[in-house]
Design a protein that fits this description.
The protein has 25 helices and 19 strands. The strands form 5 sheets. A 6-stranded mixed beta sheet has the order 16-15-14-19-17-18, with helices on both faces. Helix 1 packs antiparallel against helix 3, helix 7 runs antiparallel to helix 8 and helix 7 packs parallel to helix 10. The radius of gyration is 26 Å and the shape is elongated.
């Protein structure tokens, strides 16, 4: 930065250089992550926050235009506590430099100082010894140097040195950092970013070809897992690191804070130029979504399972991660015991967007379904989300076996397979199985493979086992009405009309490739369940049944009664009972009951 005026071109390349350096330090930042939760993902969150900005950022001669773009994109890309704090700071820089094609150092220094205040105000309980402390030290140094009319290179060099010095002191400012003898991960990430900007003085602008290579590499896992176990860290008090984008800039931040703070901790309200992003650690993301909807529509929802992340960092049972999607019906207790990772599908209803099972519960879903005229939509996890999960898991595991819903029922298998390709370029690290299953059938397969993974089986052995086992799993679904299958296009209106006229109630199963098909029918719900019980009894007699699970769409009493009838017929109790995913329930409707079995 060799001129007293800063333009968009300089800011753009400074940001690129910062990204390149923090990307190199990603695993180190994951390893030292102990505050506020030892979930080992600070490096991933900060790199993903910045990489998404870099991917979409375009060079411009206007300083305010570049800063505005950086701020706007960061509001969508911000991940984790550190990413949220950094994003709020960037939005402050954009706010306080608006309309200026070129910035004097005084302009930038004043904006930097004011932006620190915004970052502090965004957090419910600011803690020193974190990124906030280093942000403040850097900004104050920039402001002081600009007021003293120092040389630009000298100003930024002194500010970097000041930030580095303050970073070293974080080790003694927080007890958990001192006990683990580490620096704060978020603060370290910010200094790593600044070091990249410092390198720009010597290396010059980043070549476009190098920029592309670094961005591409940031989306791939590394060759060796991170070994990271921390002492003196408490288990997460709340399960979900929840983030949502409110598609409006609220004028009622204090009211919003009061509405949300009782639901958890680590609350950050990040105000952008025209949007608001919310971050909170909570056990009830669905309630967070419900309260936020009073302020506007929601998008860009995320809810990372911090309990699972803590297990990954400090108590991994296996060297192979087992990953499925939210369509697999498995109780939380089993997910926790077997350390199964879950990617949640998206569900949309008009302008409202939800994460399956997390920001909308099955109970909420069926209430909405009964009152809304329009049919909901669903979408698979987006590529960026899949990349983030793959990156995190390959940092800590030798490989991943992925068990999504049947290829013939969803594009999830294609998404997960395509996204896995860069990770498998040298050796097979991610195996994506076409389970040909869904719901409880998929759940039984996932649980069994997770057990085998925890017994020490290799990725190759797990893949072979899954291919054999999936052919022994069958599911039978009792559907009370064709109404929602017709609305969703699964059944033609004529067939739905005839079924309703004749009071026919179908038994639906999956064929060999996972497509739904009518297996049998009855004229009453009682008769339907009796037929399914008979099918299971006959299967037990001919092939034998190793295990089975019963799932339901908001009708636990009927499901328990049905499970008792199967137990009486077979002498076997169900392995588990669970609710049906809202994504499946949108077609089956409330009251549906299903049983899945593993034969022989």
């Amino acid at each position: 930065m060799s001129t007293t005026l800063m333009n968009g071109y300089q800011i753009y390349h400074g940001f690129l250089s910062g990204f390149m350096n923090i990307n190199n330090d990603r695993q180190y930042l994951n390893k030292i992550n102990v505050f506020p939760v030892a979930d080992g993902d600070t490096g991933n969150n900060m790199v993903r926050t910045i990489s998404m900005i870099v991917k979409r950022l375009e060079s411009s001669r206007s300083a305010s235009a570049v800063l505005s773009d950086i701020a706007r994109i960061s509001l969508y890309s911000a991940r984790g506590n550190s990413g949220m704090i950094f994003s709020q700071y960037l939005n402050g820089l954009a706010l306080y430099t608006a309309g200026k094609d070129k910035l004097t150092l005084e302009d930038f220094g004043q904006a930097a100082q004011k932006s620190v205040s915004l970052a502090y105000e965004s957090i419910d309980n600011p803690v020193e010894g974190t990124m906030l402390t280093v942000l403040k030290a850097w900004s104050e140094s920039i402001y002081q140097g600009s007021m003293e009319k120092r040389n630009p290179d000298d100003i930024f060099h002194r500010a970097f040195k000041r930030a580095s010095t303050v970073l070293e002191k974080t080790r003694d400012q927080l007890q958990v950092l001192k006990e683990n003898n580490v620096l704060d991960a978020g603060a370290s990430g910010f200094v790593s970013f600044l070091k990249g900007m410092e390198n720009l003085r010597f290396s010059g602008p980043v070549p476009l070809s190098l920029r592309k290579n670094v961005i591409d590499s940031s989306d791939r896992g590394t060759a060796s897992p991170v070994i990271s176990r921390h002492k003196a860290t408490e288990k997460p008090q709340y399960r979900y690191c929840t983030e949502m984008l409110l598609n409006t800039k609220t004028a009622h931040r204090n009211k919003l804070r009061k509405d949300l703070i009782q639901l958890g901790d680590s609350l950050i309200i990040n105000e952008g130029l025209d949007r608001t992003r919310i971050h909170i650690h909570t056990n009830c993301p669905h309630e967070v979504a419900t309260r936020l909807k009073k302020y506007g529509t929601l998008s860009e929802q995320k809810a990372d399972d911090m309990i699972r992340q803590e297990q990954v960092v400090n108590n991994r049972k296996s060297s192979i991660a087992v990953l499925t999607d939210s369509i697999a019906d498995i109780p939380q207790e089993i997910l926790d015991t077997e350390q199964i990772h879950v990617l949640n599908h998206k569900l949309s209803w008009g302008e409202d967007e939800f994460l399956d099972r997390v920001t909308i519960t099955p109970e909420q879903f069926y209430r909405e379904q009964s009152r809304r005229k329009e049919f909901p939509g669903s979408s698979l996890p987006d590529a960026e989300r899949v990349k983030a999960v793959y990156q995190y898991l390959t940092d800590y595991y030798d490989g991943i076996i992925v068990l999504p819903v049947a290829k013939s029922l969803s594009g999830t298998w294609n998404q997960m397979t395509k996204t896995a390709e860069p990770y498998n370029s040298r050796e097979k690290k991610i195996a994506v199985i076409d389970t040909c299953l869904n719901s409880a059938a998929q759940g039984l397969l996932v649980r069994e493979i997770a057990r085998q993974a925890n017994e020490g089986k290799s990725l190759k052995e797990l893949t072979e086992s899954a291919e054999v086992l999936k052919r022994k799993i069958h599911i039978y679904v009792s559907v009370s009405t064709f109404k929602y299958m017709v609305k969703g296009g699964r059944v033609s209106p004529m067939k739905g009309y005839l079924a309703a006229f004749l009071h026919l109630k179908p038994i639906v199963t999956l064929n060999a490739v996972g497509k739904g098909t009518a297996f049998d029918k009855a004229f009453t719900r009682k008769g339907l369940l009796k037929k399914i019980s008979g099918i299971i009894s006959e299967t037990a007699r001919i092939k034998g049944i190793r295990s089975y699970a019963v799932v339901h769409a908001a009708d636990p009493a009927k499901a328990e009664q049905f499970a008792r009838s199967i137990e009486q017929a077979t002498g076997l109790a169900p392995d588990y009972m669970s609710s049906i995913s809202p994504i499946v329930g949108m077609h089956s409707g409330q009251g549906a009951i299903a049983v899945a079995v593993i034969t022989g």
